[in-house]
Write a structure and sequence with these properties.
With 265 residues, this protein is mainly alpha-helical. It has 11 helices and 4 strands; from the N terminus they run ααααββααααββααα. The chain has 2 domains: 82 residues, Arc Repressor Mutant, subunit A (Orthogonal Bundle), CATH 1.10.10; 160 residues, no CATH class.
Length: 265
């Protein structure tokens, strides 16, 4: 079995953001800052024989040394600073980061609209109705926006109600996740698709289903969307382990690393 290690492509986005916020940053400082936000596997922390570098720091150095062949290299430029080399974001890098930010803003607007629809929806009272909704054929929203699929807010409302408006990560960790009480006299919670709906194109079976939807407090939900890789992994691993069996039973199969690398980085 292949040893789990951080991959170069996982650190491109955070590395570019760090360089933008720290113009002229050196390789060693970039490594230090990345180590604070990237979850390292045991193998990443091992010291290389005869060197002071860890295997993770070597991954960062490889990313830099491969700059003539990867996206990272196209987005930065270097400038000599005494004995060291400093890294700066170029115009392409600025555009790349703006693309990340625009995508996040668009996703946030869409999610806010979805959460509003969930609040206004009724749940499914009958298990047969829920099963029918779960097993429906995936349907795209419209011809003008054919990259997105329709979602049923009633399914998410049913999941929130089933969990008694308690964050699923709270249940899994035993740590209390209090929010506030809504005008419906329940704790405010949000629905989250573990396998995001943007992944529907990769699955023949509908993923807008109750066994793929999580009941989360807004803090955990925002951490999954906007947190560091370390924050995302910590929460998603708990949710994945609690839900993957149910997903597999419905012939929805995905490895955790595939989930992270394809849809959350």
């Amino acid at each position: 079995m292949e040893e789990k290690r951080v991959k170069e492509r996982e650190i491109i986005k955070p590395a570019l953001k760090i360089i933008k916020d720290n113009p002229g940053i050196s390789t060693s400082e970039l490594i230090k800052k990345l180590q604070k936000i990237v979850e390292l596997y045991p193998g990443d922390k091992e010291i290389l024989a005869g060197r002071n570098d860890t295997k993770f720091s070597q991954i960062v150095r490889n990313l830099i040394s491969h700059k003539n062949y990867n996206k990272f290299g196209k987005c930065i430029y270097e400038r000599e600073q005494g004995r060291n080399t400093g890294f700066y974001i170029n115009e392409l890098g600025e555009n790349e980061i703006q693309g990340y930010e625009k995508s996040e803003i668009k996703e946030e607007k869409l999610d806010n609209e979805f959460q509003r629809k969930v609040r206004e929806s009724n749940d499914y009272n009958e298990i047969e109705e829920l099963m029918k909704a779960d097993s429906r054929i995936p349907e795209k929203m419209s011809r003008s926006n054919n990259s997105r699929y329709k979602v049923d807010p009633r399914i998410t409302k049913t999941v929130l109600k089933k969990n008694n408006y308690i964050c699923e990560i709270e249940k899994l960790t035993g740590e209390e996740h209090k929010t506030f009480v809504t005008n419906k006299d329940v704790q405010y919670m949000e629905g989250h698709h573990l396998i995001p709906m943007k992944a529907q194109k990769d699955f023949k079976i509908n993923i807008d289903r109750s066994d793929n939807i999580c009941c989360l407090c807004p803090n955990c939900h925002r951490a999954i969307h906007y947190g560091t890789i370390k924050e995302k992994r910590a929460r998603l691993s708990l949710l994945y382990n609690s839900k993957i069996r149910g997903l597999n039973e419905n012939k929805i199969c995905i490895d955790f690393e595939e989930l992270i690398n394809n849809y959350y980085i």
